[in-house]
Amino acid sequence: MDLGDRGCSIKFCQWCGAATKHEIPYGDDKPRAVCTNCGKIAYQNPKMVVGCLIEHENKVLLCKRKIEPSYGLWTLPAGYMELGESAIEGAVRETWEEAGAKVEVLSPFTQLDIPLIGQTYIIFLAKLKDSHFSPGPESLECRLFAHADIPFDSLAFSSMLVTLNLYIEDMKRGAAGIHYGIINKRPGTSPSDIHDFSLDYHWMR
Q: What is the structure's pLDDT at 187?
């Protein structure tokens, strides 16, 4: 699916409420939702997901999801960035909301683009400020996992699988790097499918 088609999901104008038509505006190369009344163009851009990979006593904190998609599967605490906050602020907020944990961010760890579903993930390495954590409203359970016990077959999203695999590889080398990658999913694949994808580009520092 061409990401240009994503604008076609907007049926009504967000400014005046009139119906939209879907066409390629002058000077553009992708179809957009254009208001039939006021002529304004609505653009849909990729969503930013931010979160934390929390290290504590050689273990990693994961949350079991209480919501769809991927109910009952494990993930790093993460969620959509809000307007008015930085990526770090969003990651700290999501960690508190999902895992009841206060954290100190140490460094960026991964940025993973998933063009097919219009998402970018930014995950930071972080540490607990104290030993307390507890599941928030969107989590069934929060648990610290030793590296060998991470439930790779029960992870919620391909981005989490890639992030945790990169982390384990880095720990074997003795130091965490900073990673950028592009995850390509096969058209028609569920966004939460952790098997049918490829990491087609990977840069590490």
A: 85
Q: What sections of 84-179 are H helices per DSSP?
A: 87-99, 158-173
- In the 8-state DSSP scheme, what is residue 25? -
Q: Which amino acid is present at 99?
A: A
Q: How far is CA 111 from CA 11, 68, 77, 137, 202, in A?
A: 32, 23, 15, 26, 10
- pTM confidence score: 0.89
Domains present along the chain, CATH in parentheses: 9-44 (2.20.70.10), 47-204 (3.90.79.10)
Preceding amide of 69 cis, omega within 30:
yes
pLDDT of residue 8: 59
What are 34-37's contacts with CB under 8 Å, separation 24+?
37/13
Distance CA 205, CA 200 (A): 17
Give dist(CA 106, CA 139) in Å, integer. 24
The H or E element spanning position 198 is strand 197-204
For the stretch 103-160, pLDDT in tens is 999 999 999 999 999 999 999 999 999 999 999 999 999 999 999 999 999 999 999 9
CB within 8 Å of 48: residues ≥ 6 apart: 80, 81, 87, 90, 119, 120, 122
| CA separation for the pair 181, 58 (Å, rounded) | 25
User: Cα separation of 34 and 176, whole Å?
Assistant: 46
